[in-house]
Amino acid sequence: HFEHLFEFTPSILVHDLHPDYQSTRYAAQRVTPCPKIAVQHHHAHIASCMAENHIVSSVIGVAFDGTGYGTDGAIWGGEFLIANYEGFNRSAHFRYVSMPGGERAIREPWRMGCSYLDDAGLNSDVFGNRIDKKLMSGVNGLLNRKSFLPLTSSIGRLFDGVASLIGIRDRTTFEGQAAMELEWEAMNSDTERTFPFEICRTNESDSFQIDFRPLTRGIVLEIKAGTGRAHISRMFHSTLAKIINDVCHLLRNKSGINQVALSGGVFMNALLLDSAHLRLTQNGFEVFTQRLVPPNDGGLSLGQLAVAAAQIRKKGERISCA
């Protein structure tokens, strides 16, 4: 459509790494021969933030979203990258959990709630009678066969699971609905409490993993203690902001990088963005966010173009547009 509208022919195609994304299929099926560059989803998010802010040096990139194809084949979405335009190193990420039912877990957040409970060694009694017992039994059966389920480190799915656990929303009609309602609920509390969590070293080239099982157990304890949903929601947001600050502090000590770029659809959440920004700046970081280009997938193409341009420059190629 744009080729026809603006009367141009692209000399190179840039697309997401995910093999089933529409842009990837379009690039693969295009009849006219054209060089193609695949860009990892979260790298593109961080590059988009860098490009908008005219950053040329490496950054600590915090990429939080719902779904993005990882280089290991898992579904990423809770990533800390040491990144520039030419490449990235995945320096920290949230612990993987299973997605029972695959994409159905996006439409039915209670499934993710079950997964987080199972991962933390807890049963599903916090749901009470909200979920059909036969459905619950089927999901728990799936979780007993984890090797057949897709894995995710997604913060979007974590928001969904928490929203369901505390009774805000078990089923959604659009993506992000449960997370939005969790944010709105959190606005009704000013508690400064946080949940516990752990940051552990992994076996992957000295990177870190955020273990949120203590957070899940803490949420269940608060539910059973009768704590209101607004307080739990606010505690959850504050905990994520603290995790961002603490992990970035570790990565700064390791890399010497003091610039942090926040991007990905989760940072459409104003409460989380403001809380993380405040903690980071108080800790001496130079923090970059997005205003001209959205941090969600609406801004992804800018990052993809920035990465592709850097790769072309690195190879010393000249690509002229028709």
Give a description of the structure.
It is a single chain. With 322 residues, this protein is an alpha/beta fold. The chain has twelve helices and eleven strands. The strands form three sheets. It has a seven-stranded mixed β-sheet with strand order 8-9-5-4-3-10-11, with helices on both faces. Strand 10 (259-263), helix 11 (270-282) and strand 11 form a beta-alpha-beta unit. Helix 5 crosses helix 6 and helix 8 (177-186) packs across helix 10. The longest helix is centred in the last third of the chain and has 27 residues, at 229-255. It is globular, with a radius of gyration of 20 Å. The mean pLDDT is 94.
How are the SSEs placed, and which strands pair?
Blueprint: H1 2-6, E1 13-16, H2 22-29, E2 36-39, H3 41-52, E3 59-69, E4 75-83, E5 88-94, E6 97-98, H4 104-107, H5 109-119, H6 133-143, E7 151-152, H7 155-165, H8 177-186, E8 198-201, E9 208-211, H9 213-224, H10 229-255, E10 259-263, H11 270-282, E11 286-288, H12 300-315
Parallel strand pairs: 1-2, 3-10, 5-9, 10-11
Antiparallel strand pairs: 3-4, 4-5, 6-7, 8-9
- How much of the polypeptide forms β-strand, as a percent range? 15-25%
Task: Give the radius of gyration.
Answer: 20 Å
Terminal CA distance reads 16 Å
Q: Note poorly predicted spans.
A: none
Q: How are the strands ordered across the major sheet?
A: 8-9-5-4-3-10-11
Structural class: alpha/beta
Shape: globular
SSE order, one letter for each helix or strand: HEHEHEEEEHHHEHHEEHHEHEH
Q: Indicate the mean pLDDT.
A: 94
Largest beta-sheet characterization: 7 strands, mixed
